[in-house]
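Listing 4. Sequential folding, example run.
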Amino acid sequence: MGVIPNKDNADQLSVLFIGAHPDDADIQFGGTAIKYLELGHTVNYLSMTNGDAGHQSQGGGALAQRRRNESQAVAEFLGINYFVLDNHDGELQATVENRRKVIQIIREVKADLVITHRPNDYHADHRQTSLLVQDAAYLICVPNVVPFTPRLESNPVIVYHQDRFKKPYPFVPEIIVDVTNENDKKMQALGFHESQVYEWLPFIEGYLPDVPEQADERLKWLSAKWSSFFEANALLKEAKMIATPESLSGFQYIEAFERCEYGGKLTHDNVKTLFPFGIINF
């Protein structure tokens, strides 16, 4: 059955974001992903669903294909691998079959670091994705599970991306990444998800009339609308838990992460290898 070493190149990381929908990685991790790419590391995105329900006037196979095409446009733009599984949007379940798919992809990309949703989240697909990652974590190194894809020799570290949910416990930003310089490119990548950022999300959240019709105005509007969630000021209270105001000086946009207790452990010995650009406090 064999063993896959996590690293082909000791200096290169393989980073995998596992999200529920084809735009989740771009929203929550896009700036940090660009930083990894700029350092020569490999970045992979995995969407557990095909996104076939997320639109007000399209659906089914046509929408799934459209969303897959949008994700592949991001992949080409950034230079990443973007996997989209053919599970229905809004119906994801933490089944053994889906767990096997997660294990297989983690092994195939030889992930050193996995980023996913926290288990408390507004969207059932997000919660199920988080559970799938947790359920897969120990089994990554077990040779008789998904035996045709050789096991990894060490378990990847798992972290959660930032959110604003408070119960049963709030997000704790243990790693902060300054993505100020990467924000423009992040917004360009996010803009490829036209069905979402210019159509569905504005519709379901009630601001569709605000979306510009002209393509050259849309990206400017998108940046103003979506960047606010990642403004340093918006996370300043939490950021001060792990960083001094001086160390945050000049940070306009940030992405933050919290350790997961499953999988490999993020330690003082490996954190600067896995997050070479982060502000750390744990």
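-- end of first protein; second protein begins --
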Amino acid sequence: MQDRPIHHVSHGRVRRVSFDRIARNRVHRHSYFEPCIVISGAGDFEHGADRHSLAPGDLFLADPGVYHEIRSLESRDLQLYFISFQIAVHHSADGRHSSELIPPSLITSFLARHRTHLSDQSDVTPLFEYLYEMTTRDEVFGRSANYRDASLLLIRHVMSALASSASLSAGDYSDRQQKTRVQRAIETRLHKSLRIAELARACGMSERTLRRRWRSWSTRSLADEINHRRIERACQLLALPDLAIGEIGYQVGISSPARFSRLFRDLKGLSARDYRKQLMQDTAQSMTGSHQRTTEYLDD
């Protein structure tokens, strides 16, 4: 039987960096992929022969072996989250995949072709922030299986966005940007009651147009999408042990505790209290080891 590739994805921790004191990092390259999301501010990203202007919500990626530099020379206000990951390829007759949360077909397409810069991706910022908070609040939690799985889901999102956008036509790419703009508008309003008409105005279209376009983008209704994102945000907040469960519903725009409890159970299959208990139990599990990472600076 012919050997099949096994892809193993290892990763570091989410970090945050600000370019207020040092307006640029040195031109360098390293042995791993490094996706970054712009939190705020402005700057530019030079990656090999390419240069991209940076704005909030931009997702960009440094490839292994490619010299690159990030700068915020004029405004000195650029802030980023970033994570590093590596993809090791082995071969086995059974072709079992060691990173179950990331499909082998996605890794293959990502390795074959992907963008290194994509705008309007701020919907992924909360996951970067969630992982960053996990490690800064609790070192043990940062080594948990829950952290590992959440990190792999983040990397899966990054791979999917960068790989799929690489093959989009100009029209399809514009359509994807519109969908991302709607998702971003939802994310920034999850803390309060949200009407579809308000969402449409924020996205520069009529309510009728928004509903029509959303039906072409998703199998979920807009109301279901909003509820789904509210509960996903609630799951992130449940990882913070000092935040009472009774407060979390208010934090995600659901003022009725009974409605929050019912919606959470409907979408997650268990109560918010049991979900938090499960998260805490996962902290006892250790995170898998990672491959050696190296960085080389151009002026060394």
